[in-house]
Amino acid sequence: MSVGRRKLAAVVQQALWVIFFAQIVVRFFTELPYNYWLSWLPALGAIAISVVNSRSAQRRITAEPPAPVEVEAPVTGRWSALNSPADKVPSHGTHHLGQTYAIDITAEPEEGARPTPVWFWPVARSGKAYPAFGEPLLAVADATVVHAEDGQRDHLSRSSLAGVLYFWLVEGVGRTLGGARRVVGNHVILDLGDGTHAMYAHVQQGSLTVRAGDQVVAGQRIGRCGNSGNSTEPHVHFQLMDGPDLDTARGVPFRWSGLGVPANGEVFTAAPVQCGNG
Fold first, then answer.
1. What is the pLDDT of residue 25?
2. What is the largest CA-CA distance in the chain?
3. What interhelical angle do 41-63 and 3-29 show, nearest 10?
4. Residue 141 backbone dihedrals phi, psi, to 5 degrees
5. How many separate helices (H) and strands (E) can be counted in the chain?
6. Which helix (H) or strand (E) holds 66?
7. Whole-number pLDDT of residue 188
8. DSSP-assigned states of every residue in 69-97
9. CA–CA separation, 274 vs 219, rounded Å?
10. Is the peptide bond before 90 cis (omega within 30 degrees of 0)?
């Protein structure tokens, strides 16, 4: 599927979801007649587009597996991996937003330093309760900044049963309707050259030290880890992709120099990049 068609599909899919949920809201305040089964058509259409896009991406990967691009790690220190492409592809269960080979990592400076999810209490925690919050994000290669935004707020964790339900049933829906930037939250995209782009999501509000057009070097601090967007707790979401537009980009596999691709639950230590200006 061409880039133009992928962009059109993304726009149509978002419009269909908006129409579907708008119907639900309108029915709460009006008594307009409606057909129950027809009211589901927008949602079914949006789901169909998602399925077609996913199958297209999967066929491409199966027929022509892309070679991983080696870059530096986006952090230093002791971290653990979550939702890793070392265990499954697509790592986050979707090819949407270029996430095919994305990885989530969270700081683990020592055993037990990171609060674990709970059933009931506390319902939510401050971002500062997590060691990942505020940790520096580093450029993974010499690159050009093509997009940078950090105006969205850092919200509380969604790490209790009530928090997770709110995340899936309320917040997730709202962010999906808001488009890609609301899903990934504050984020920065780097052009690494040769058609490869790196994206860091859930960046801390107001922490970016770069703007579009800036040149960065490997190891340079570009921002800090936060908890903006579709995030249950402060963590770094990192991915490589073949373009700067999240709606049309396809995921590109990566390898971190000296580390490879950490598996789910694997604790690893990333050393500083010697050539950076940190």
1. 74
2. 67
3. 150
4. -170, 170
5. 6, 13
6. none
7. 98
8. EEE--S--EEEEEES-TTT-SSTTS--GG
9. 8
10. yes
Q: Please report the DSSP string for 196-264 in residue order.
A: EEEEEESBPTT-----TT-EE-TT-EEEEB---SS-SSS-EEEEEESSS-TTT--EE-EEETTTB-PPT
For residue 277, tell me if it sits in a domain: no
What is the C-alpha separation between 245 and 118, in angstroms, rounded?
A: 36
Q: How far apart are the first and last CA of the chain?
A: 40
For the chain, 278 residues long, the average pLDDT of each consecutive 10-residue run is 73 79 75 70 82 75 81 97 95 92 95 88 93 98 98 93 87 82 96 97 98 97 97 96 93 96 96 65
> Residue 122: exposed, middle, or buried by beta-carbon count in 10 A (0-12, 13-18, 19+)?
middle
In this structure, which amino acid lies at residue 207?
Answer: S
Residue linked to tokens 């989530």 = 104
Closest residue by Cα to residue 81 from 114, 113, 103, 111: 103
Same domain, 43 and 92: no
CATH code of the domain containing 171: 2.70.70.10
Number of domains in the chain: 2
pLDDT of residue 277: 42
One-letter amino acid of 107:
A
For residues 54 and 94, the answer to whether their CB atoms sit within 8 Å is yes
Q: What is the dihedral of CA 79, 197, 246, 127, to 10 degrees?
A: 30
Q: How far apart are CA 163 and CA 171, in angstroms?
A: 10
Domain that holds residue 24: 3-63
191 plus 114 within the same structural domain: yes
- Determine the Cα–Cα distance for residues 207 and 224; give it in Å rounded to an integer: 6
What is the per-residue pLDDT for 157?
A: 93
Structure tokens at 114: 């990171």
Give 168's DSSP letter: I
